[in-house]
Amino acid sequence: MRYVALVLIFLPVSSTSGQELHETNSLVRIDAEDAQSSADADAEQDAAFASCHSQVAATASSGDSDTCPSQAPVDNPQTQTSDTSKAGKQSFFRSFLPDEYRIWTAPFQRRNYDSHAMKKYGVPFLLISAASIATDRRSADVLPNTRDQEIWSGRVSQIGAAYTLAGFAGATYLIGVAKRDRHVRETSVLALQALAHSQLIVFGLKQMTQRERPIVDKQRVGFWKGGNSFPSGHATGSFAVAAVFAYEYRHRIVIPMTAYSVATVVAASRMSAHRHWVSDAFVGSSLGFMIGRYVYKRHHDPSLSGSLVDRKSRLVPEVQVGPGGLLLSWGL
User: Fold this and answer.
1) Closest alpha carbon to 266 in 125, 178, 155
2) How many other CB atoms are there within 10 angstroms of residue 322's CB atom?
3) In whole angstroms, what is the distance from residue 91 CA to residue 85 CA?
4) Cα–Cα–Cα angle for 48, 72, 34, nearest 5°?
5) Predicted TM-score (pTM) of this structure
6) Sorting pLDDT into bands at 50, 70 and 90, what band is 324?
7) Closest by alpha carbon to 248, among 189, 199, 288, 197?
């Protein structure tokens, strides 16, 4: 249980070393010089092109057939969009395994034990998890536990199945492509990434804890009994996807409310269907939220709308215009 708690609490926060920041400043200066040189070259080319055409117009009556050289070709926006899309796909596959590694190794990172997440999420999570595990047997008998309850709860809970969530995120991506909406496309890609992380984490924890499901035997609430109940995969996946949508569309209150409400219904239905204990659903929901939050904060494009990313003070510079030119500074 202690290991599970640590996996949840200490999802890593990206940071940038001093050497990387120094290199970034150098790159910024180089890019600024290149941009200025390119602008000067374009201006000279435009002036020469205009002068040439003036001379051709003045000598047109003499029958001269001099022509001016054509201007440099203009980049095709569709080609740029295609290149950006390819880069985004490559970035997705390139970052997935490192992210998975960071999530699993986070409990062994000393710096995470003094993080803000420990105070804000860690202590409440540990207390509620311990209380729910201790009372799982009694809480399982609170509902009427009829056959109809189990059947309908099982049907409702399929909303949070991995294939349902993946299909929803995939459909959202197609809508974003059809509408040429970068924000919608990013939301769907991050939701799929969070869902994939959640399923891998849940699979690993299930193999380590081996807790029996309440539908099999309500008396065997302990761990290492050969089952696969802890934590709830439906709850984890639902809250991972819900967190991404909630962070991406925080300015539209209806979307976060709907996303978290649906995820809560899924988690509750897994308990009423006797597929999971209360602690399974709670730990899964908390774990899913933290995974979705981690994926969003690590991969969200700041140029798109959404919740503010805490790492802005480290990675996104403050821009100041002074008499000496443009100044970029990072607050560390």
Assistant:
1) 155
2) 7
3) 10
4) 85
5) 0.68
6) low
7) 189
